[in-house]
TrEMBL record:
GO molecular function: heparin binding
Signal peptide extent: 1-21
The protein, known as: Beta-2-glycoprotein 1
Residue ranges of the TM segments: none
Disulfide bonding pattern of the chain: 25-68, 112-139, 207-250
UniProt cross-references to InterPro entries, sorted A to Z: Compl-Cell_Adhes-Reg, Sushi/SCR/CCP_sf, Sushi_2, Sushi_SCR_CCP_dom
Function, in words: Binds to various kinds of negatively charged substances such as heparin, phospholipids, and dextran sulfate. May prevent activation of the intrinsic blood coagulation cascade by binding to phospholipids on the surface of damaged cells.
Domain Sushi: 23-83, 84-141, 142-204, 205-264
Keyword flag Glycoprotein: yes
Amino acid sequence: MLKRLVLLLVCEVSLYNLVTSAKVCGRPPQVTGAYVQYEMQVYEPGQEIIYQCNPGYKMTAGSRKNICRATGTWPSPTMKCSPKLCSYPGSLVNGHVLFSSLEFQTTVNFTCLEGYILHGHNDSECQHDSTWSNPLPVCKPVTCGLPEIPKYGLIKHHTKLTGNTTYFGDTVQYECSSPYVLFGNEFGSCSANGNWTETPECKLVTCPPPTDIENGFMSFAILRKHGYGEKIRYGCKPNYVLDGSMEIQCEKTGHWSTKPVCRASCIISVKRARIFYNGQKKWIEELPERRVQHADTVAFYCKDKDRGCGYPVLTQCVDGNLIIPSCYEEPSKIAYSVSYRSLPSEIKQC
């Protein structure tokens, strides 16, 4: 009886070891973007599972299968699932398409340039079947009414006008009927806010009768008011030079442009000199009345006594005044007429 009991106990222990020696696997490891078909809590050694990519993902590497090891562990899965891509939604005319990626579940945003209004959805999402949730919108220009015509003026349209509607960016040119003058911008445009830029004005402009200039004269002496753009000419009396524009014009301000000035010529104060004038060496008596015109330059020759050479020094006629260089020494009559070869202008130059 005791032997039979011991034998029965040995058989139960052996049967227990036989059943519990094999280990099972728990839930299989996860794969990003995938799931396990018919997933269970426990798997027997040798039991196989199949991975399947989630909607919006596609298999890009590895194997879909995995098998529970006898040790009760799972090998690392090799399968990789990557997000599907949507095609570029297209260019948005007069707008921008903003995005960081074209992968599944990412969103693109649409914006319009200034002066344009978005018609449609302002965003779209990449779906699991690689299509976009919303179609590409349209950017339509802002519209304006007709621009105001200035009094005493007219408008030239730069684009063909259809009906009473104009569009952002349309431009016009304003003109005034003679003798009116345009004040403001010559060109106008339909703005992004749906309004036209400020309308200019047409005003009548006149200038008072012009006045004389000292030592000069006008081309004609009819004293009357003059309209915008009219011109008057000036001249100078003999021995005077016009400094400034010969013509003045009646401006938008109702004033004349700057009048010229008559500048006096200069009479050289020395009687004996060899000078350099108008690109030539000349004796002073060769100049009629020893006169040079305003703004003309004259070179007088001085002598460097230490080195025994001559050198020119420039001076200029400024409205009747010409200053003789301080270094210049007027020669005597004999030196000037007989010994002229020893003058600073004739000897070796420094």
